[in-house]
Structure formats: C-alpha cells, structure tokens
Amino acid sequence: MSEKPTRPRDARVEALRLFAIAGIAVFHTFQPWFSAATGGTWAAGAGTLCALGCVNLLGAFGNNVFFLISGLFLVPTAARASSRKDFWRDQARRTLRRAAVIGATVALYGACALAVSAWALPLPGVSLHETGWLLGGLEFIWVYLVVVALSPVIGWVWARLRHPRAVVWALVAATFAVNAYIAFFSPGDEVRGLLEWRKLMSALTYLVAFLAGGALADARPAHPGRALAAVALAGVALEGGAALAGDLRLLEALSFKSTSLLSFALAALCVLVARGGAGGGAAAGGTHAEGRAAGLVLALTPSILGFYVMQSLFHGVWRPIADAACNAGAALGDVGLLLLGGAVSLAILAVALLLDYLVRIPLLRALHLA
After folding, report:
1. Where are the domains of the chain?
2. Residue 7 — pLDDT band, cuts 50, 70, 90?
C-alpha cells in the first residue's frame, strides 16, 4: 500500500513490498492449479505438489508483509505522538488522507472496470446492479483501511500499556492457535460469507500482523537472516514431506487461506531482515547501479495499491491470459507450467504497475494526495 511519506523511504523495505506483491501475483495465477491438485482432480507429481505448496504460501505471506510494514511505521509513530495536545486532530487528518488515497484508487479503477464491462469486454459481476465486486472482491483493501483507521487508537493505547509487546505476542499466539484449529480441523465451506467467523479470523489475523509490525519496530535480533533461512527450509521440508506422502489435506492446511503461521513467520522475519539492513536512502552507500535499482523500487512501490485493486476488478481480463499461459506450459510438462505461469504472472504485474504509474499516480499528485 502507499501513502505520502513523512520520512525518506527505505529502499530495502520497499523492495520487500515489491517482492510481496510479486508473490501475490504468482499465488493468484497458480491458485486454481493448487486447488485442483489438493482436490484430487489433477494428479500432480510430488515435485510439482511441493512447488505449488510453496507458491500457495505466498498469498498470505504478501498480505502479512503489507500489514507488518504498515504497523512497523504507523504504530510507534502514533504512540510517540499520543501525548501531544493536537494528537487526535493530526491523526484524523492523516487518516482521512490515507482513506482518500484508497477511495480515489477504488473510484478510478471501479469506473474503468464499469466502462470496460459495458463497452469492451463483459467482466463477470461488474455492474451498477451488483456490489460483490466492490465489497467481497476488495475485502483486503477494506480490512486494510479499517486497520489503518484504527492506528491512532492503537498508538494511544500502546503508549499507555506497561508491556505492549508482551500483549501483542500473546495475541499472536492466541490468534494462530485458533487459525491452526481452523486449518487442520475446521476449514468450513469453500465459500464463506463476509461475517462467517472463519472469514473474520482472516481479518483479525491481519490486524494482529499490524500490531506485530509495531512490536518489531525496536527489535534488533542478532541473526534474523539465519532464522529466516531456517524457517524457509522448514517450510520447504514440510511441503515436500506432505507432497511425497501424498497427503493432500496436509498440503492444503499448511497454507490455508490467510491464516498460515508459516506465511506469517516468513513475513515477519523478512521484515526484520529488510529493516535490519536499513540504509535510509535510495542509494545510501551503494554503487550507481544499486542507486538506480533502488530508485526504480521507490518509484514503483506506490503503485502496489493500484495493482491490488486492478487485479481484483479486472480478474476477467488477466485470468484468461494467465490460464492460457499455464495450459501452454503444462503441455511441455510440470516445469513448463511453473516457469511459464510464473513468467506471465510477473509480466502482468509489470504492465499493471506501469499503467498505474502513468495514470493513477499523476492523478493523485493533481489531487495533492501523492
């Protein structure tokens, strides 16, 4: 997600955002294939099952990254400012600005989707007579908006707790204990209503990730990279073991929807690694090539929000392209499926980010929102 920065953005943290959105793009492309494999309608080999299981972790991983990074900056900032006399007025102004960016983004791409559906290519469910495409279809965006809107209250309470980090980690433990119960024992129906309790646990998980980001703000572990490598290897081993055993239910449970502990742990450790190597500037201490790469990262990350909205609203445009690429790759074998499907996912992401950079970002600047 993006908002007007109050300090120089850290290129390493922003690069993690780009990696996260790339993971989400790949996850969405292969989601039907993973469902077919774990549902028993497609007999994938053990290696392919393992690869798809790892890819399926990327969806919740990416979403957790966004909430963790937002909490990393917003929670301590609000907590430090909570003793000021103008705290609530200032926070209300900041929150309204963030909400305006999200609202303008949804309005822009919603209008574009309606126009495309009416005059070019019918988009399933996109019309003035339906609301699902704006509500359920963009549920992650609305959860993000609610959580960010709560950040002043969270910061105010945070500053008045004796041990806020202990409270947060207790909430993390309790949340993922319930998530484990859902994933392994009570997954429920495939289609969930917006107020179904398992659906609400997904939203709660993201709120907890936001709080965890605040708890990580001052964390400086000695070797976060080693911990990240260990958890990543453990995740691959678990996915590989389930694939070799042919345990489709375990494969599904390991990355169940947005409640995966593995995804959360990987996201939190990635944030620590990125934050630990903070240089503060786009090219701080780096070579000219590194500076240019950092500049490109900083230019593209504000378009992540635009891509997220576009991907949901224009599902009927990119999905057939991704499916055609996967089917063409599958004709060459499982490796072809993974390589071609992944490449097309990243190409779709690149095109969407570029379009957003050329269209929405200038519009936000014109509205003094960027």
Report:
1. 11-366
2. low
